C-alpha cells in the first residue's frame, strides 16, 4: 500500500490513516471501516495487510443467497453424490494403482468470511509436486511469469497421465461435493482460492468473501483456461452483485456442456 492510498486524520491526539477507497457495496450492508493509529502511512498499510481476513472483510451477514441457496446446494450435491459414487470409487482405485498413495488430497482454501477450510480433490499430481514445480521453474524461467499470473502451467510436469484425464473431464473435483454438504462450499460461486490470491481482488475482496466458494461458476463456463486473472476477478464480482436462483441454474446447465467440451473444462 502506498502513501497516497491513505488519508491522514487526527483522532484523540493521535495520527491515524484511513483507506478512503472502499469497495462499492453489492447491497445495502454497512461498510466496515478499519483505522490504524500510526504516524507512518507505510506502517499503517503493513498493519492493515496483516489483519486477519475475517476482520478485514467485516462480514457478519449470512452467505450470499441465504437459506434458499443452501437448500439448493444440499439437494443438488446429495443427488449428484449418489449418482457419482460408482465413478468416484473407480477413480480412487485407478489413482491408487497407477500412482500409489492417497487418492484424495486436501488443501487449505479461503471460505466465506475469510475462514479457511480444507478443499478436497482427487490427486492428479506426483507425490513430490512442490519439489518438481520448483525445479521446473528454475530450469524454465520463461514459465515463471505464466505461473505468477494465473497459478497454472500449460504443460505442468507435476500432473500424472491419469491426472490430465481427470482434470480435462473435471472429475478431479468430484470430492468437493462433500465440501458442499459440509457447508464449506456452494454448487455455484467463485472458485476457492488460497490466501495469497486474496490480494488480486484488491478493493473487491469483501465481495469475494460474501459468498461460499463454488464447485462451478461464471469463470468455469467462460473458458477458464484462456481467461486472465483480472477477468476472473471481474466475473466473480459480477456473479456476487447479480446473484439469483435463476443465475445459479443457468450456470449449472452451462457447466454440464462445458464439462462435455473438455477444452472448456480444463
List the helices and strands and how they pair.
Elements: E1 7-11, E2 14-18, E3 36-37, H1 41-50, H2 53-57, H3 66-98, E4 104-110, E5 116-122, H4 129-139, H5 141-150, H6 161-169, H7 176-182, E6 186-188, H8 205-208, E7 214-216, H9 229-241, H10 245-260, H11 262-265
Helix pairs in contact: 3-7, 4-5
Key descriptive features of the protein:
single chain, 266 residues, alpha+beta, three-stranded antiparallel beta sheet, two-stranded antiparallel ribbon, 11 helices, 7 strands, 46% helix, disordered N terminus
Describe what you observe in this structure.
The protein has 266 residues and is of the alpha+beta class. Helix content is 46%, strand content 12%. It contains 11 helices and 7 strands. Strands 1-2-3 form a 3-stranded antiparallel beta sheet, covered by helices on one side. Strands 4-5 form a two-stranded antiparallel ribbon. Strands 6-7 form a two-stranded parallel ribbon. Helix 3 packs antiparallel against helix 7 (176-182) and helix 4 (129-139) packs across helix 5.
Amino acid at each position: 500500500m502506498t502513501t497516497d492510498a491513505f488519508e491522514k486524520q487526527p483522532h484523540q491526539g493521535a495520527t491515524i490513516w484511513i483507506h478512503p477507497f472502499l469497495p462499492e457495496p453489492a447491497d445495502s450492508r454497512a461498510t466496515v471501516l478499519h483505522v490504524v493509529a500510526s504516524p507512518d502511512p507505510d506502517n499503517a498499510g503493513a498493519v492493515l495487510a496483516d489483519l486477519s481476513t475475517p476482520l478485514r472483510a467485516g462480514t457478519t451477514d449470512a452467505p450470499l443467497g441465504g437459506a434458499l441457496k443452501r437448500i439448493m446446494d444440499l439437494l443438488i450435491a446429495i443427488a449428484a453424490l449418489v449418482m457419482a459414487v460408482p465413478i468416484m470409487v473407480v477413480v480412487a482405485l485407478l489413482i491408487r494403482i497407477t500412482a500409489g498413495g492417497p487418492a484424495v488430497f486436501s488443501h487449505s482454501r479461503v471460505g466465506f468470511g475469510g475462514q479457511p477450510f480444507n478443499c478436497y480433490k482427487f490427486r492428479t499430481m506426483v507425490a513430490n509436486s512442490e519439489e518438481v514445480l520448483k525445479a521446473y521453474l528454475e530450469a524454465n524461467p520463461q514459465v515463471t511469469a505464466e505461473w505468477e499470473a494465473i497459478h497454472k502451467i500449460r504443460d505442468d510436469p507435476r500432473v500424472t497421465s491419469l491426472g490430465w484425464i481427470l482434470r480435462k473431464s473435471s472429475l478431479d473435483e468430484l470430492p468437493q461435493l462433500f465440501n458442499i454438504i459440509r457447508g464449506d462450499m456452494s454448487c455455484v460461486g467463485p472458485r476457492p482460492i488460497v490466501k495469497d490470491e486474496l490480494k488480486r481482488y484488491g478493493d473487491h475482496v469483501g465481495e469475494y468473501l460474501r459468498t461460499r466458494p463454488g464447485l462451478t461458476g461464471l469463470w468455469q463456463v467462460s473458458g477458464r483456461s484462456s481467461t486472465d486473472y483480472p477477468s476472473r476477478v471481474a466475473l466473480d464480482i459480477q456473479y456476487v452483485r447479480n446473484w439469483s436462483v435463476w443465475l445459479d441454474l443457468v450456470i449449472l446447465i452451462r457447466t454440464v456442456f462445458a464439462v462435455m467440451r473438455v477444452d472448456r473444462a480444463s
